[in-house]
């Protein structure tokens, strides 16, 4: 690989089946399946929390802390939307993430999309990486 890791941020709209978007158990299973599919290692979670309030802001947030970084989703069932962020120090395939969301909710439209290849300049040699990190660190 030519880069250190990926960050994928998505907004999915027009969710066909919103039933899982307000279901703690379904979201917990989904987060486990998602990180397993993209080959990540769970350190903590998944944790699912409920956001109450006006219908346009009500929904669930689910996060899992990974050895490789994190994955988070925020669901808005009444708006038929999901916001997603998968941030990793290990490359993964975007299509695997999208396939898992299709399994969870059926059809959707991608209304926001950002994929960043992180660390293209980051050295692969750990000694060089430590040196780069140390040189950029502000003395405390």
Automatic annotation (TrEMBL):
Cofactor section: pyruvate
Keyword annotations for this protein, in alphabetical order, are: Autocatalytic cleavage, Decarboxylase, Lyase, Polyamine biosynthesis, Pyruvate, S-adenosyl-L-methionine, Schiff base, Spermidine biosynthesis, Zymogen
List the Gene3D superfamilies hit by this protein, alphabetically: S-adenosylmethionine decarboxylase (3.60.90.10)
Which Pfam family would be a valid example here?
Answer: AdoMet_dc
Q: Which domain of life is it from?
A: Bacteria
Q: Could you identify this protein by its name?
A: S-adenosylmethionine decarboxylase
């Amino acid at each position: 690989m030519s880069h250190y890791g990926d960050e994928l941020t998505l907004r999915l709209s027009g969710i066909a089946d919103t039933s899982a978007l307000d279901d703690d158990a379904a979201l917990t299973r989904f987060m486990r399946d998602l990180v397993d599919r993209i080959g990540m290692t769970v350190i903590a979670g998944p944790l699912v929390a409920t956001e109450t309030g006006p219908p346009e802001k009500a929904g669930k947030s689910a996060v899992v802390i990974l050895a490789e970084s994190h994955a988070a989703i925020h669901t808005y069932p009444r708006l038929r939307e999901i916001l997603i962020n998968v941030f990793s120090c290990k490359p993964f395939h975007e299509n695997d993430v999208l396939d898992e969301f299709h399994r969870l909710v059926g059809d959707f439209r991608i209304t926001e999309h950002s994929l960043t290849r992180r660390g293209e300049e980051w050295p692969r040699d750990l000694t060089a990486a430590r040196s780069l990190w140390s040189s950029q660190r502000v003395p405390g």
